[in-house]
Write a structure and sequence with these properties.
Shape: globular
Number of domains: 3
CATH architecture of the largest domain: 2-Layer Sandwich
Structural class: alpha+beta
Helix content: 25-40%
CATH topology of the largest domain: D-amino Acid Aminotransferase, Chain A, domain 1
CATH superfamily of the largest domain: ATP-grasp fold, B domain
Distance between the termini: 32 Å
CATH class of the largest domain: Alpha Beta
Oligomer: single chain
Radius of gyration: 21 Å
Protein backbone atom coordinates (compact mmCIF):
# COMPACT_ATOMS: atom_id res chain seq x y z
CA UNK A 1 0.00 0.00 0.00
CA UNK A 2 1.41 3.39 -1.02
CA UNK A 3 1.88 5.77 1.90
CA UNK A 4 -0.10 8.96 1.72
CA UNK A 5 1.74 12.27 1.43
CA UNK A 6 1.50 14.09 4.76
CA UNK A 7 0.66 17.76 4.21
CA UNK A 8 0.48 20.36 6.97
CA UNK A 9 -1.93 23.05 5.82
CA UNK A 10 -1.15 26.18 7.86
CA UNK A 11 -3.62 29.07 7.85
CA UNK A 12 -4.98 31.99 9.86
CA UNK A 13 -2.17 34.08 11.30
CA UNK A 14 -1.64 37.41 13.02
CA UNK A 15 -2.15 39.69 10.04
CA UNK A 16 -5.24 41.68 9.11
CA UNK A 17 -5.85 39.04 6.41
CA UNK A 18 -6.46 36.30 8.99
CA UNK A 19 -10.03 35.57 7.88
CA UNK A 20 -9.10 35.53 4.18
CA UNK A 21 -6.41 32.96 4.96
CA UNK A 22 -9.00 30.79 6.70
CA UNK A 23 -11.27 31.02 3.67
CA UNK A 24 -8.34 30.10 1.41
CA UNK A 25 -7.74 27.02 3.55
CA UNK A 26 -11.37 26.05 3.14
CA UNK A 27 -11.02 25.83 -0.64
CA UNK A 28 -7.64 24.06 -0.53
CA UNK A 29 -8.78 21.48 2.02
CA UNK A 30 -11.77 20.65 -0.15
CA UNK A 31 -9.47 20.17 -3.18
CA UNK A 32 -6.89 17.85 -1.59
CA UNK A 33 -7.57 14.24 -2.55
CA UNK A 34 -7.99 12.24 0.71
CA UNK A 35 -6.85 9.07 -1.06
CA UNK A 36 -3.49 10.70 -1.79
CA UNK A 37 -2.95 13.13 1.09
CA UNK A 38 -3.07 12.92 4.86
CA UNK A 39 -3.81 16.46 5.93
CA UNK A 40 -2.65 18.00 9.21
CA UNK A 41 -4.69 21.24 9.53
CA UNK A 42 -2.87 23.82 11.65
CA UNK A 43 -4.44 27.15 12.45
CA UNK A 44 -2.54 30.16 13.77
CA UNK A 45 -4.74 32.31 15.98
CA UNK A 46 -4.79 36.09 15.86
CA UNK A 47 -2.47 36.23 18.87
CA UNK A 48 0.04 33.88 17.21
CA UNK A 49 -0.73 30.51 18.83
CA UNK A 50 -0.43 27.42 16.64
CA UNK A 51 -3.27 24.96 17.15
CA UNK A 52 -4.37 21.66 15.70
CA UNK A 53 -7.73 22.55 14.25
CA UNK A 54 -10.61 21.24 12.20
CA UNK A 55 -9.95 20.17 8.64
CA UNK A 56 -13.62 20.49 7.70
CA UNK A 57 -13.76 22.86 4.70
CA UNK A 58 -17.37 23.77 5.51
CA UNK A 59 -16.26 25.43 8.74
CA UNK A 60 -13.89 27.69 6.79
CA UNK A 61 -16.22 28.70 3.98
CA UNK A 62 -17.43 32.23 3.29
CA UNK A 63 -21.14 32.27 4.00
CA UNK A 64 -23.96 34.64 4.90
CA UNK A 65 -21.73 37.62 4.16
CA UNK A 66 -19.25 36.73 6.90
CA UNK A 67 -15.68 35.45 6.81
CA UNK A 68 -14.49 32.48 8.88
CA UNK A 69 -12.15 32.63 11.86
CA UNK A 70 -9.71 29.92 12.86
CA UNK A 71 -10.36 30.82 16.50
CA UNK A 72 -13.89 29.45 16.22
CA UNK A 73 -12.75 26.04 14.95
CA UNK A 74 -9.61 25.46 17.01
CA UNK A 75 -9.48 22.41 19.26
CA UNK A 76 -9.40 23.92 22.73
CA UNK A 77 -6.23 23.20 24.70
CA UNK A 78 -4.30 21.71 21.78
CA UNK A 79 -1.15 23.52 20.75
CA UNK A 80 1.24 22.85 17.90
CA UNK A 81 4.81 23.90 17.22
CA UNK A 82 7.50 22.92 14.73
CA UNK A 83 10.50 21.22 16.32
CA UNK A 84 13.92 22.76 15.60
CA UNK A 85 15.54 19.67 14.07
CA UNK A 86 13.80 17.84 11.31
CA UNK A 87 10.53 19.60 10.64
CA UNK A 88 8.51 17.66 13.21
CA UNK A 89 5.33 19.01 14.69
CA UNK A 90 4.81 18.62 18.43
CA UNK A 91 1.31 18.56 19.92
CA UNK A 92 0.32 18.78 23.55
CA UNK A 93 -2.92 19.20 25.46
CA UNK A 94 -3.02 21.45 28.50
CA UNK A 95 -1.47 19.72 31.49
CA UNK A 96 -0.24 16.71 29.53
CA UNK A 97 3.21 15.60 28.44
CA UNK A 98 3.95 16.80 24.86
CA UNK A 99 3.48 14.15 22.21
CA UNK A 100 5.04 13.90 18.78
CA UNK A 101 2.50 14.33 16.03
CA UNK A 102 5.01 13.01 13.48
CA UNK A 103 6.88 14.07 10.41
CA UNK A 104 5.18 16.01 7.66
CA UNK A 105 6.36 15.71 4.08
CA UNK A 106 5.53 19.28 3.14
CA UNK A 107 3.93 22.41 4.57
CA UNK A 108 1.39 24.36 2.56
CA UNK A 109 1.52 27.84 4.15
CA UNK A 110 -1.73 29.59 3.23
CA UNK A 111 -0.98 32.74 5.21
CA UNK A 112 -1.63 36.14 3.69
CA UNK A 113 0.09 39.34 4.78
CA UNK A 114 2.59 39.99 7.55
CA UNK A 115 3.91 37.23 9.82
CA UNK A 116 3.46 34.54 7.22
CA UNK A 117 3.53 35.62 3.58
CA UNK A 118 6.46 37.96 4.17
CA UNK A 119 9.26 35.41 4.65
CA UNK A 120 8.94 35.00 8.42
CA UNK A 121 7.24 31.60 8.31
CA UNK A 122 9.41 30.56 5.38
CA UNK A 123 12.52 31.29 7.44
CA UNK A 124 11.20 29.24 10.35
CA UNK A 125 10.50 26.29 8.07
CA UNK A 126 13.98 26.51 6.58
CA UNK A 127 15.48 26.54 10.07
CA UNK A 128 13.64 23.29 10.84
CA UNK A 129 14.59 21.70 7.52
CA UNK A 130 10.97 21.40 6.44
CA UNK A 131 9.88 21.38 2.81
CA UNK A 132 7.23 23.94 2.04
CA UNK A 133 5.28 25.16 -0.95
CA UNK A 134 5.58 28.61 -2.44
CA UNK A 135 8.16 31.37 -2.48
CA UNK A 136 11.31 31.34 -0.39
CA UNK A 137 12.41 33.86 2.22
CA UNK A 138 13.70 36.57 -0.11
CA UNK A 139 10.94 36.33 -2.70
CA UNK A 140 8.29 36.33 0.03
CA UNK A 141 9.79 39.44 1.65
CA UNK A 142 10.26 41.26 -1.66
CA UNK A 143 6.79 40.33 -2.84
CA UNK A 144 5.24 41.63 0.36
CA UNK A 145 7.08 44.96 0.44
CA UNK A 146 5.58 46.97 -2.42
CA UNK A 147 8.40 49.53 -2.39
CA UNK A 148 11.20 47.02 -2.91
CA UNK A 149 9.05 44.93 -5.23
CA UNK A 150 8.71 47.94 -7.54
CA UNK A 151 12.41 48.77 -7.24
CA UNK A 152 13.30 45.25 -8.40
CA UNK A 153 10.76 45.34 -11.22
CA UNK A 154 12.08 48.70 -12.42
CA UNK A 155 15.66 47.42 -12.27
CA UNK A 156 14.59 44.55 -14.54
CA UNK A 157 13.05 46.99 -17.00
CA UNK A 158 9.45 46.02 -16.20
CA UNK A 159 6.78 48.74 -16.58
CA UNK A 160 5.67 50.11 -13.20
CA UNK A 161 3.65 53.21 -12.42
CA UNK A 162 4.89 56.29 -10.51
CA UNK A 163 4.67 56.30 -6.72
CA UNK A 164 6.00 57.98 -3.57
CA UNK A 165 7.03 56.16 -0.38
CA UNK A 166 6.01 57.64 2.98
CA UNK A 167 7.56 56.47 6.26
CA UNK A 168 6.15 57.25 9.68
CA UNK A 169 9.62 58.30 10.89
CA UNK A 170 9.68 61.23 8.46
CA UNK A 171 5.95 61.95 8.09
CA UNK A 172 5.85 63.67 11.50
CA UNK A 173 8.70 66.04 10.59
CA UNK A 174 7.16 69.20 9.16
CA UNK A 175 9.82 69.85 6.50
CA UNK A 176 9.79 66.22 5.36
CA UNK A 177 6.00 66.14 5.25
CA UNK A 178 5.95 69.20 3.00
CA UNK A 179 8.52 67.62 0.68
CA UNK A 180 6.51 64.40 0.48
CA UNK A 181 3.26 66.26 -0.15
CA UNK A 182 4.93 68.21 -2.95
CA UNK A 183 6.19 64.96 -4.53
CA UNK A 184 2.77 63.36 -4.23
CA UNK A 185 1.14 66.42 -5.77
CA UNK A 186 3.21 65.81 -8.92
CA UNK A 187 1.55 62.40 -9.34
CA UNK A 188 -1.78 64.05 -10.12
CA UNK A 189 -5.21 63.17 -8.75
CA UNK A 190 -6.59 60.83 -7.68
CA UNK A 191 -3.94 58.76 -5.92
CA UNK A 192 -4.17 55.47 -4.08
CA UNK A 193 -2.72 55.28 -0.59
CA UNK A 194 -1.89 51.82 0.71
CA UNK A 195 0.13 50.08 3.42
CA UNK A 196 3.41 48.99 1.84
CA UNK A 197 3.15 45.48 3.27
CA UNK A 198 -0.56 44.79 3.24
CA UNK A 199 -3.01 42.93 1.08
CA UNK A 200 -6.68 42.24 0.34
CA UNK A 201 -7.08 46.03 -0.12
CA UNK A 202 -7.15 46.46 3.67
CA UNK A 203 -6.14 49.99 4.69
CA UNK A 204 -6.26 51.34 1.12
CA UNK A 205 -7.85 54.71 0.37
CA UNK A 206 -8.47 56.71 -2.77
CA UNK A 207 -7.52 60.36 -2.27
CA UNK A 208 -8.97 62.82 -4.74
CA UNK A 209 -7.38 66.01 -3.40
CA UNK A 210 -4.71 67.36 -1.09
CA UNK A 211 -7.42 67.83 1.54
CA UNK A 212 -8.15 64.10 1.76
CA UNK A 213 -4.57 62.93 1.24
CA UNK A 214 -3.23 63.46 4.76
CA UNK A 215 -6.16 61.61 6.30
CA UNK A 216 -5.63 58.72 3.87
CA UNK A 217 -1.93 58.53 4.73
CA UNK A 218 -2.75 58.57 8.43
CA UNK A 219 -5.21 55.72 7.97
CA UNK A 220 -2.67 53.61 6.07
CA UNK A 221 0.06 54.32 8.65
CA UNK A 222 -2.21 52.73 11.25
CA UNK A 223 -1.61 49.42 9.45
CA UNK A 224 2.03 49.82 8.44
CA UNK A 225 4.77 52.35 9.29
CA UNK A 226 5.57 52.47 5.58
CA UNK A 227 3.00 53.58 3.02
CA UNK A 228 2.93 53.82 -0.75
CA UNK A 229 1.10 56.58 -2.58
CA UNK A 230 0.53 55.54 -6.19
CA UNK A 231 -0.63 57.50 -9.19
CA UNK A 232 -3.97 56.29 -10.51
CA UNK A 233 -3.65 54.37 -13.76
CA UNK A 234 -6.50 54.86 -16.19
CA UNK A 235 -7.38 51.37 -17.36
CA UNK A 236 -8.90 48.03 -16.50
CA UNK A 237 -7.38 45.71 -13.91
CA UNK A 238 -6.00 42.48 -15.33
CA UNK A 239 -4.59 39.56 -13.35
CA UNK A 240 -2.51 36.56 -14.37
CA UNK A 241 -1.72 33.44 -12.34
CA UNK A 242 1.74 31.88 -12.49
CA UNK A 243 3.10 28.47 -11.53
CA UNK A 244 6.71 27.41 -11.18
CA UNK A 245 7.82 25.41 -14.19
CA UNK A 246 8.03 21.66 -14.03
CA UNK A 247 11.42 19.89 -13.87
CA UNK A 248 13.33 23.16 -13.84
CA UNK A 249 11.50 24.60 -16.83
CA UNK A 250 10.30 28.19 -17.20
CA UNK A 251 7.21 29.34 -15.28
CA UNK A 252 3.75 28.85 -16.74
CA UNK A 253 1.16 31.62 -16.93
CA UNK A 254 -2.61 31.24 -16.98
CA UNK A 255 -5.16 32.85 -19.22
CA UNK A 256 -5.43 36.45 -17.90
CA UNK A 257 -8.60 37.54 -16.13
CA UNK A 258 -10.21 40.96 -15.85
CA UNK A 259 -11.34 42.32 -12.50
CA UNK A 260 -14.99 43.38 -12.52
CA UNK A 261 -15.46 46.26 -10.10
CA UNK A 262 -18.88 46.83 -8.62
CA UNK A 263 -20.02 50.23 -9.96
CA UNK A 264 -21.00 51.15 -6.41
CA UNK A 265 -17.35 50.81 -5.34
CA UNK A 266 -14.82 53.57 -5.98
CA UNK A 267 -12.18 50.89 -6.61
CA UNK A 268 -11.53 47.18 -6.06
CA UNK A 269 -11.63 47.44 -2.27
CA UNK A 270 -12.10 44.75 0.38
CA UNK A 271 -15.89 44.68 0.06
CA UNK A 272 -15.73 44.49 -3.73
CA UNK A 273 -13.35 41.53 -3.44
CA UNK A 274 -15.07 39.46 -0.79
CA UNK A 275 -18.60 40.73 -0.19
CA UNK A 276 -19.76 41.27 -3.77
CA UNK A 277 -22.89 39.34 -4.72
CA UNK A 278 -22.08 39.06 -8.44
CA UNK A 279 -19.15 37.95 -10.55
CA UNK A 280 -15.79 39.49 -9.64
CA UNK A 281 -13.82 38.35 -12.70
CA UNK A 282 -14.19 37.94 -16.43
CA UNK A 283 -12.01 35.19 -17.84
CA UNK A 284 -10.47 35.65 -20.33
CA UNK A 285 -9.89 39.37 -19.94
CA UNK A 286 -11.46 41.60 -22.58
CA UNK A 287 -8.14 42.64 -24.10
CA UNK A 288 -6.60 41.93 -27.53
CA UNK A 289 -4.91 38.56 -28.03
CA UNK A 290 -1.49 40.20 -28.42
CA UNK A 291 -1.97 42.07 -25.15
CA UNK A 292 -2.98 38.86 -23.38
CA UNK A 293 0.24 37.20 -24.57
CA UNK A 294 2.25 40.15 -23.32
CA UNK A 295 0.51 40.03 -19.93
CA UNK A 296 1.47 36.37 -19.65
CA UNK A 297 5.07 37.14 -20.62
CA UNK A 298 5.33 39.98 -18.14
CA UNK A 299 3.75 37.89 -15.40
CA UNK A 300 6.46 35.25 -15.83
CA UNK A 301 9.13 37.99 -15.97
CA UNK A 302 7.85 39.46 -12.68
CA UNK A 303 7.83 35.97 -11.13
CA UNK A 304 11.47 35.44 -12.11
CA UNK A 305 12.53 39.00 -11.19
CA UNK A 306 12.05 38.34 -7.46
CA UNK A 307 13.17 34.68 -7.73
CA UNK A 308 9.66 33.49 -6.92
CA UNK A 309 8.86 29.80 -6.57
CA UNK A 310 5.75 27.68 -6.47
CA UNK A 311 2.97 30.08 -7.35
CA UNK A 312 1.98 33.72 -7.61
CA UNK A 313 -0.63 36.07 -8.98
CA UNK A 314 0.57 39.13 -10.89
CA UNK A 315 -1.65 42.21 -11.26
CA UNK A 316 -1.62 44.72 -14.12
CA UNK A 317 -3.44 47.70 -15.59
CA UNK A 318 -4.33 47.73 -19.27
CA UNK A 319 -4.82 51.29 -20.48
CA UNK A 320 -7.04 52.64 -23.29
CA UNK A 321 -3.83 53.34 -25.24
CA UNK A 322 -2.93 49.65 -25.07
CA UNK A 323 -0.15 50.02 -22.52
CA UNK A 324 0.39 47.36 -19.85
CA UNK A 325 1.50 48.57 -16.42
CA UNK A 326 2.69 46.09 -13.78
CA UNK A 327 1.07 46.76 -10.42
CA UNK A 328 2.23 44.03 -8.03
CA UNK A 329 2.91 40.35 -7.41
CA UNK A 330 1.26 38.25 -4.70
CA UNK A 331 3.40 35.29 -3.66
CA UNK A 332 0.54 33.57 -1.81
CA UNK A 333 -2.61 34.75 -3.59
CA UNK A 334 -6.09 34.32 -2.18
CA UNK A 335 -7.62 30.89 -2.71
CA UNK A 336 -11.26 31.61 -1.90
CA UNK A 337 -13.99 30.59 -4.38
CA UNK A 338 -14.07 34.25 -5.50
CA UNK A 339 -10.29 34.52 -5.90
CA UNK A 340 -8.74 34.99 -9.31
CA UNK A 341 -5.86 32.52 -8.92
CA UNK A 342 -7.85 29.26 -8.86
CA UNK A 343 -10.45 30.60 -11.31
CA UNK A 344 -7.83 31.59 -13.90
CA UNK A 345 -6.13 28.20 -13.69
CA UNK A 346 -9.47 26.42 -13.99
CA UNK A 347 -10.15 28.44 -17.15
CA UNK A 348 -6.70 27.45 -18.43
CA UNK A 349 -7.49 23.77 -18.00
CA UNK A 350 -6.07 23.10 -14.54
CA UNK A 351 -8.91 22.56 -12.02
CA UNK A 352 -8.35 22.89 -8.28
CA UNK A 353 -7.53 19.24 -7.56
CA UNK A 354 -4.82 19.15 -10.23
CA UNK A 355 -3.66 22.67 -9.37
CA UNK A 356 -2.83 21.84 -5.76
CA UNK A 357 -1.37 18.48 -6.78
CA UNK A 358 1.09 20.39 -8.94
CA UNK A 359 1.93 22.94 -6.22
CA UNK A 360 2.63 20.16 -3.70
CA UNK A 361 4.57 18.05 -6.20
CA UNK A 362 6.78 21.03 -7.05
CA UNK A 363 7.46 21.63 -3.36
CA UNK A 364 8.31 17.99 -2.69
CA UNK A 365 10.91 18.06 -5.48
CA UNK A 366 12.97 20.67 -3.59
CA UNK A 367 15.66 19.91 -1.05
CA UNK A 368 14.99 21.17 2.49
CA UNK A 369 16.94 24.19 3.70
CA UNK A 370 18.43 27.13 1.85
CA UNK A 371 17.01 27.58 -1.62
Amino acid sequence: MVRKIRVAVVFGGRSTEHAISCASAGLVLSALDPSRYEVVPIGITRDGHWVLTSGDPALLAIGDGSLPSVDSVATAGTSVMPLPAGGLVSVSAAGEVPQTLGDVDVVLPLLHGAYGEDGTLQGLLELTGTRYAGAGVFASAAGMDKEYMKLIFAARGLPVGPYVTVRSSTWDIAAERKRLLDEIGELGWPVFVKPARGGSSIGISRATSAASLEEAIGSALAYDPKVLVEAAIDGIEVECAVLEGLAGGPPDASVPGQVLVDPRSAFYDFSAKYAASGDTMQIPAAIPAAAALEVRRLACAAFEAISCEGLARVDFFYTPAGDIVLNEINTMPGMTPASGFPMMWAATGLPAVQLFDRIITTALAKKPGLR
